[in-house]
Specification:
By secondary structure, the chain is an alpha/beta fold. The protein is built from 14 helices and 15 strands. The protein folds into three domains: 116 residues, 3-Layer(aba) Sandwich (Rossmann fold); 115 residues, Rossmann fold (3-Layer(aba) Sandwich), CATH 3.40.50.10800; 80 residues, NadA-like (Rossmann fold, 3-Layer(aba) Sandwich). The strands form four sheets. A six-stranded mixed beta sheet has the order 7-6-8-11-9-10, sandwiched between helices. The longest helix has 15 residues. Bound molecules: 1,3-dihydroxyacetonephosphate and iron/sulfur cluster (SF4). 1,3-dihydroxyacetonephosphate binds next to helix 3.
């Protein structure tokens, strides 16, 4: 039963003490997040992984790219474990290294040596390594603006992988007009650009997106404005430009949490992000009216792969002396990827 599984997890945690560390992303289920030694957004989880030098086993409750990042940032004696290998991220899968190298060639032919690559941490270790090797950095949704500003001190143009929406929303916030942004379509291997002169382009947006956040739409916002005009609308910047533009607030999961904490009792909030976090916020803020911007709720199916049973299985395996589902980034990839992560962490 769930009760028995919970008891087992508590008891293993208690026995292993500092040898075990469980970071959990804010999108994890309640049944999992209750065991997290730290819950955080992607940036916080990367910082915490880099800072933890004691734990021999890091059981990462999040998705594959987060566990890879933890492996890159931790020492060689530390083992990072992902309780279910199927916990991937469809956005990270939208940019593979072969596509990136092929696209980069065309971009170099088109713009010469004027481009700095940046990648959202929601990307594979190989993409982070590519970016690190070319002088670029990773970004998260909570420091994208700062990192884009830095990138423009290095080069005239930016390639932003793999989330076109975070890239577009951040560049737009910095005052870059839409006709100075082009999309790189990695399948068709061509630019998608509506403006009059491609050479004006300052930001090249990889054509990737989050399949959870694309479910928050302009129609959802119009509906709420019509039926509950007093409601504040807050969304994650993985939502489209149109949705972000029509919202009242936008920011990372941590920003959303902080904004709700600071909100007055009695206020109403429609939240455009993953379901587990929205439900948790609704529970924690019973004095406010908190609900999902899309009534279909929008779960991240891969984040939800991590559940009580998988977490317990990982911990019991460790107890038996078996390390299952260890995430090991190739050392050569790691060597370059850490450069991209460090360039972010020193400015984060
Ligand atoms: P943040 O936690 O950085 O806001 O990222 C959201 C997300 O989609 C993680 O996959
Ligand atoms: Fe990936 Fe989107 Fe899920 Fe985050 S919410 S892990 S970006 S699919």
């Amino acid at each position: 039963s769930d009760d028995e599984m919970e008891q087992r997890i508590w008891s293993i945690k208690h026995k292993m003490k500092e040898k075990l560390y469980i970071p959990g992303h804010h999108y994890q289920k309640d049944e999992v997040i209750q065991f997290a030694d730290a819950a955080g957004d992607s940036l916080q989880l990367a910082q915490l992984s880099a800072a933890n030098k004691e734990a021999e086993f890091i059981v990462f409750c999040g998705v594959h790219f987060m566990a890879e990042t933890a492996d890159i940032l931790t020492d060689s004696h530390q083992k990072v474990i992902l309780p279910d290998m199927r916990a991937g991220c469809s956005m990270a899968d939208m940019a593979n290294i072969t596509q990136t190298e092929r696209g980069w060639k065309v971009m170099q032919q088109t713009f010469g040596d004027t481009i700095l690559p940046l990648t959202y941490v929601n990307s594979t270790a190989a993409i982070k390594a590519f970016v690190g090797q070319h002088g670029g950095a990773t970004v998260t949704s909570s420091n994208a603006k700062k990192m884009l500003e830095w990138a423009f001190t290095q080069k005239e143009r930016i390639l932003f992988l793999p989330d076109q929406h975070l890239g577009r929303n951040t560049a737009y916030d910095l005052g870059i007009p839409l006709d100075e942004m082009a999309i790189w379509n990695p399948i068709a291997e061509r630019f998608e650009y509506d403006g009059d002169d491609l050479q004006k382009v300052k930001v090249i947006l990889w054509k990737g997106h989050c399949s959870v956040h694309e479910n928050f739409t302009v129609a959802n916002i119009e509906e709420i404005r019509r039926t509950k005009p007093e409601t504040n609308i807050i969304v994650h910047p993985e939502c489209s430009r149109e949705v972000v533009a029509l919202s009242d607030y936008n920011g990372s999961t941590n920003y959303i949490i902080k904004t709700l904490e600071a909100a007055e009792p009695g206020t109403s909030w429609a939240v455009g992000t993953e379901m587990n976090l929205v439900n948790r916020l609704a529970k924690e803020h019973a004095d406010k009216d908190v609900f999902s911007l899309n009534s279909m709720m929008c779960p991240c199916l891969t984040m939800n792969r991590i559940d009580l049973a998988h977490l317990l299985w990982s911990l019991e395996s460790i107890e038996e002396g078996l390390v299952r589902n260890q995430i090991i980034v190739d050392p050569e990839v790691s060597r370059w990827a850490v450069l991209a992560l460090d360039r972010m962490l020193e400015r984060a």
